[in-house]
What does this fold into?
Amino acid sequence: MPKTTLSFYLHIIAIAVIVFALGNYLSSRGVAEGSPTAYGDSSLNARNDNKGNRETVYDRVMRTKTIRCGYGTWNPGVYKDLQTGQMSGLFVELINTMGKLNGLKIEWTAEIDWGQIPESIKSGKVDTFCAGMANDASRGKFLAYSEPLSYWTFDVLVRKDDKRFPEKQVAIADLNKPEFASAFTEGDVLETIVKNEFPNIKFVPLPLLGTPADNLLHVITGKTDFVVFPKIMLLNYEKENPGKLRLLQVQPPLRAFGNVIATTIDELQFQQLLNSAVRELVNSGAYASIMDKYDAEYPGTFLRVAKPYQIPTNP
It folds into this structure.
């Protein structure tokens, strides 16, 4: 065999040995090539143990003693002071209290587009979506919901001076007409409601990270004709912009949903962890205190979870 050919094969063998040794080294450290951990990020779902098993959300929460919350901003549910970074609102108070019950830190990690909730949790960007959301069937294909923290009904908001709509109650047929348009975030519960209940209208998708305020602005400026929302959205908007919108009650209501938090569909252990805190919270004096405060400011908007028992009063 010529000397140059022998040198070539020896060179190839040496490279193969190095690659093999490096692969064993990475494997022994529980790091899969191309995984986030391989590049220094041990916080994501793809973290492996020394046997190559993927770390679950539950395992990571137990390891870090921290729940990383994704959220969408909506007043008074969740809002962030842009100067101080302080998080406030009904669901901030409820979730922070749940963390105390679980003995875990709550970290408000990232704002999430309402249409990207399943993807954001699945990718490991956050552990759960904590801003309160409807437990609808469409997203239920991908998400495991907690037990409800409250309930709310969905009706219709229109411009105050729009004479095309009845003053109070409406039927679905009154709204399901080609001349009307309604906006929604793609992948959000509003898309499901609008497309199922009003298939004849024009659909107007919102841009990425569209907020409830954007949807209301579309109605006020005439870009759309109505929006499907719970009553709380009207009451909150009315505080800053009185006389712009009015509520139409659809009989029966378009939807009644539990207001929940969510994680990925395959995270049973983490879902059980969340539910244990939800159950203790809604049966506590802390829940009553938090809800009383928001009921006083926004009456009739957050329907409390009914107790499965009655406490007898002293004669």
